[in-house]
Amino acid sequence: MNHVRPYFLASDGFQKTIMYGSVGGNLLVMCYCTFYLIWNWSPVGPSLFYVSFTLLAGYFVADLASGLVHWGMETWFSERSLGRAIAIAREHHTHPENILGYGFLEHSTLGSAPSTVFIGAGVILIALCPVSLVNYMIMIVFLITATCPAASGAGSLDGD
Predict the structure, then answer these.
(1) Of 71, 57, 20, the residue nearest 145 (C-alpha)
(2) How far is CA 128 from CA 31, 68, 147, in A?
(3) How many CA atoms lie within 13 Å of 73's alpha carbon, on the beta-carbon side?
């Protein structure tokens, strides 16, 4: 197999800290959502239909969110504002094979950073509200939406 070397593979300590913080923050969001769903299963008593429908809706919300992040990174931000993250996001258009050279941390960070901020804020708001079926379903959507960007890096766990 021909190994490719991505253009923006090098990162400094500050960038690594941001990447680990983003992925770690998103992992905390996923863990809290899971805890909330398990803890409140009995009080809410959701039906299998509601859970199934919400899981499917969560997948579509996650796909829409990742598309909006991708579009926003390539349209509204520059390498001056977000540096390496924008460069990596744009590189796959000019050199598609280079994306295979990045590891789990780079792949997962591109989705985990916005998820940590926006989904994390939503999770905090729902946690402050009384437990209800609607809030339970929203938390399922948040869990799926937070999990999808983190899982996007799983394809690169083979160690490059």
Answers:
(1) 57
(2) 17, 27, 22
(3) 22
